[in-house]
Specification:
The complex is a heterodimer of chains A (158) and B (201). Helix content of chain A is 72%, strand content 0%. Chain A contains seven helices and no strands. In chain B, strand 2 (50-55) and strand 3 (58-63) form a beta hairpin. Chain B has helices spanning 4-9, 20-32, 69-79, 88-102, 120-130, 140-146, 153-161, 188-197; strands at 38-43, 50-55, 58-63, 84-86, 138-139, 174-175. Chain B is built from eight helices and six strands. Chain B is elongated. The longest helix of chain B is centred in the middle third of the chain and has 15 residues, at 88-102. Classes of the chains: A mainly alpha (158), B alpha/beta (201). Chain A binds chain B through residues 2-8, 10, 14-16, 18-19, 22-23, 27, 30-32, 34-35, 38-39, 42-43, 45-46, 48, 93-96, 99, 102-103, 106, 117-118, 121-124, 149, 152-153, 156-158, and chain B through 1-2, 4-5, 7-13, 16-19, 21-23, 25-26, 29-30, 33, 35, 37-38, 40, 70, 73-74, 76-78, 81-86.
């Protein structure tokens, strides 16, 4: 089994992963999450049994790190507010404060739908590219986007 | 309600900048954790840009620019470990010694060698070559003999021709017994340059 040198993955994907993480956790924590994600990836890399979909593999790890961070934040917040709902913290990334509510709902989507929505709409990528980043078929990517949009439409008002 | 898609797209962060600071911190942490199975970096030299590859065991490879870097990285990833990372700080010591050598401030390299890219007789030949002192030359037959095979001059030539660590393992110090230069991995002009630098010819 031949895996490409890890550096080629970093060269090809680190910048776009960082941008993806910026949307998920905000510019400050994106640096940290990227480090954590690449550390985890490098640890696991020598033991990988398949060299397929390495890009999607990296995105999955990155998103997991973003979720971990979200949980830690929520816990801190819950403790701070003494039992209040920790999920209701302001969105990490929202250049327009009026859209905080929207980003909170994006953050509350299941991971696949959240990733699909971000790749498709924030980055304006065609479905082939969304599918490549997610390691799924185009049809599955479309489905995640549709499901995510439906949820957002039901919850977000303005 | 304003178009949802439009609102989402409005949040696109500015164009991706290479996250250099983050990557540097990542490399430092990966190194501290012992995850950099192979670290590499380029350096300038009078012989053109060189690429230095080091592992925790020592210097693994030193290459001339004739060999495309992508091919070399893939080769190292396949034969040693796919955890190959560009990490200049890990190669500093070797690069400094090479700089000193080219400036004639150093005659001996004090670096551990990782011999994993060479096997069998070739490894014996290169180890024997590593003992040829600065400024001296030997010939193919003698180096073969030193490696335990007095009749193996031709095989020794092949081993030297595919030396993964030229300069530091000084295959340029092996020439023909009749005074001819013989061959060189990096091309004869480089061999002549190195011998002249050392005052050997």
């Amino acid at each position: 089994m031949h895996l490409p040198p890890f550096q080629t993955l970093v060269d090809a994907h680190a910048a776009e992963l960082h941008r993806f993480l910026t949307v998920l956790v905000g510019p400050h924590d994106a640096d940290d999450c990227l480090q954590e994600a690449l550390l985890s990836a490098l640890r696991a890399y020598a033991r990988l049994t398949s060299g397929e979909n390495l890009r999607a593999w990296l995105y999955t790890i990155a998103q997991r790190k973003a979720l971990d961070l979200g949980r830690r934040r929520a816990r801190r917040r819950t403790e701070a507010l003494d039992g209040l709902d920790g999920r209701r913290e302001p969105a990490a990334w929202s250049p327009d404060p009026a859209d905080d509510g929207l980003w909170r709902e994006v953050g509350a989507l299941p991971p696949k739908q959240r990733a699909a929505i971000v790749h498709r709409f924030v980055f304006d990528l065609p479905y082939a590219e969304v599918a490549s980043r997610m390691g799924c078929t185009e049809e599955a990517a479309r489905q995640s986007v549709r499901a995510g949009l439906t949820k957002l439409r039901g919850r977000v008002t303005r | 309600m304003k178009d949802l898609e439009g609102r989402l797209h409005a949040a696109a962060p500015p164009a991706a900048v290479p996250p250099d600071a983050s990557l540097e911190a990542w490399r430092r942490r990966a190194a501290a954790e012992g995850l950099l199975d192979v670290a590499y970096a380029a350096m300038d030299s009078p012989l053109g840009p060189l690429t230095v590859f080091v592992t925790p065991a020592g210097l693994l490879r030193l290459s001339y620019p004739d060999d495309p870097i992508e091919r070399q990285l893939t080769d190292v990833a396949t034969r040693i470990s796919p955890r190959v990372v560009r990490a200049p700080e890990r190669t500093d010591a070797v690069r400094r010694q090479l700089d000193d050598y080219f400036e004639r401030r150093r005659r001996r390299f004090e670096v551990a060698i990782d011999w994993r890219l060479v096997r069998g007789f070739a490894a014996d030949v290169l180890r024997a070559t590593a003992r040829v002192p600065y400024g001296r030359v030997t010939n193919y037959r003698d180096v073969a003999a030193a490696a335990g095979s007095p009749r193996g001059a031709r095989a020794a030539g092949n081993a030297l021709g595919s030396n993964p660590i030229p300069i530091v393992v000084p295959c340029h110090r092996v020439v023909h017994a009749d005074g001819g230069l013989g061959g060189y991995t990096g091309g004869l002009p480089r061999k002549e340059f190195l011998l002249a630098l050392e005052g050997a010819r």
